[in-house]
Amino acid sequence: MASKPQVKTLRAHKLAALVVDARLYARRTPEEACALLGWDTRHLLDLESAAITPTLPELEALAAIYAVPVDHFFGSTSLSDEMPKLRVDTMRQRLELRNRILGAMIMQARLRKNLSRDDLSMATNLPLELITDYELGKIPIPVTDLEDITHILQIRVEDWIDSYAIPTRDMIIKPFTLSSRQTEEEEESREPEPVEKAEPERPAPKKVEPVAAEPVSMVEPTQSVQAKHEPAVSSAEKEPASVNQPSQAEIDLLARENLPKELIDFVTNPINRQYLLLANNLSQMPADQLRRIAESLLEITF
């Protein structure tokens, strides 16, 4: 079993390998890294060779310039192995293709302006043979010559920049910058907006409650009887009984059944005829069906 000093030595070498891996992943030389950190190159090389064990602030500084998470140094995953490696011949082919594309764009823009190669040569003070080679993509176009040509053709060089033509480190890993943090904060500040818009929609189901409560008034007719009884009696005193109104003999029969006066008034009021029919229909329904109706009413009211 390894002793504690041996374990610490192995840990130091593993940490040094991860430091080297992070630098290779960032495609920086030791000199470039030390220039950003203000370190002596010897100090970084000592860290990478495990001659010196780095401190936590040093690991945080390395993570910042290499654009890697700090916990990379506490793991065991290699980042540089996952970095796509572009072969030299592939890069050369891409550069040649890009030069031909720029030449074709120059020729297309010149023809749109109805200019000949001689006209473009005279306007830019560039030899005619050079203009021809540029348009055919035979030779690379210096930026200064490209600016002269695009100026005559009234085109901005920035419009011809193809940032995706050649993969860069920024395309593979995007380091955390202040602008990205501000963008995230702006997005977070905009997140509550849809919540505020959704809040007025919540009272919508509450508006349905008074409508759904209407059937309850049908089950409790006592309140409606009290409200409707007084005008019914007064009208009965002034007007003769209608055909739908019960006769005096029927009223006396109800009174002899020892029914409450409120119930007698409810039954004898023609306005409540529909409630009586409903009660009659409910009395003839099976118990199971009545139970289902009661459950449905509870779901509506609650």
What does this entry look like structurally?
This protein folds into three domains: 8-82, lambda repressor-like DNA-binding domains (434 Repressor (Amino-terminal Domain), Orthogonal Bundle); 88-160, Orthogonal Bundle (434 Repressor (Amino-terminal Domain)); 212-301, no CATH class. Helices cover 67% and strands 0% of the residues. The protein has 18 helices and no strands. α1 packs parallel to α4 (56-66), α5 packs across α7 and α14 (221-238) packs across α16. This is HTH cro/C1-type domain-containing protein. Residues 19-73, 106-160 form the HTH cro/C1-type domain. It comes from Leptolinea tardivitalis.
The chain-level mean pLDDT equals: 73
The DSSP helix count reads 18
Number of domains: 3
Order of helices and strands: HHHHHHHHHHHHHHHHHH
Strand percentage lies at: under 5%
Helix percent reads 55-70%
The number of E-state strands comes to 0
Largest sheet: none
Roughly how many Å apart are the termini?
A: 70 Å
Radius of gyration: 46 Å
Protein name: HTH cro/C1-type domain-containing protein
Region (Disordered): 177-245
GO molecular function: DNA binding
InterPro entries: Cro/C1-type_HTH, Lambda_DNA-bd_dom_sf
